[in-house]
Amino acid sequence: MPYNEPWENPADRAAALTARLQKARAARDARRLAALAEVPADRKDSEERRLLAEDETANAADESAAWAALRTAAAQRQAWWRTRPRRHLLVSASLTVTGPSPGALGFEAFLVQREYRSGAQASFAPALALEAEPFANLLKVRAGSYLEPSRFADSDLRDAEPRLHGTAGLDLRLFESTIFGLFSPFHWRTGGTVDVAPAWFNFSVSLGLWH
């Protein structure tokens, strides 16, 4: 099984289906006009009504069969995806580089009315994170760390030293819902995150959709 299964955009499939239906409709229109050209004038109106009714019936049957096939293919695709293994280990890394800002002053300089230069040199913020799903289709966990660089060069400032952060989070699948039948079935999920560092603590809770 490939690591990354190809994804087919449903909009692309629907657009191709619509184009085929329009082509078939245009072909019927052309055949009907060609047939009417050979019909005597006294029978043309009745024959046109008959051929038009036949073509509309054929067009409706084509559309019904085509959209039914599209829905069936989508359902089969969803069923196939649900059988794929969900357990994984995702490793993410990044490096944020902030260039120098000559002549800039930090907000602390305004508060204490002193000239604390900010951004005299470029700063670098590396980050590393892991994500796993230890209980398939139920629980996702994340952990990571990143370095918060300082933009100040003044050693007497508390924020003059870089600060190492540790982060963690989780997503827990809850119950299935359709919101009173307004949407296709989906699962709610709840989650939370924490971010800790010296003299720093932050957390969040969330409610959303399980993917």
Description:
With 211 residues, the protein is of the alpha+beta class. The chain folds into 2 domains: 10-82; 89-209, no CATH class. 36% of the residues lie in helices and 33% in strands. The protein has helices at residues 10-36, 41-82, 107-112, and strands at residues 89-98, 123-135, 139-148, 163-177, 186-197, 200-209. A 6-stranded antiparallel sheet has the order 1-2-3-4-5-6, with no helix packed on it. The longest helix is centred in the N-terminal third of the chain and has 42 residues, at 41-82. It starts with 9 loop residues before the first helix and ends with a strand.
Task: Summarize it.
The chain has helices at residues 10-36, 41-82, 107-112, and strands at residues 89-98, 123-135, 139-148, 163-177, 186-197, 200-209. The protein is of the alpha+beta class and 211 residues long.
Class computed from helices, strands and strand pairing: alpha+beta
Tell me about the largest β-sheet. 6 strands, antiparallel
**Cα shape:** elongated
Task: Give average pLDDT, whole number.
Answer: 84
Spatial gap, N to C terminus? 21 Å
Query: What count of structural domains?
Result: 2
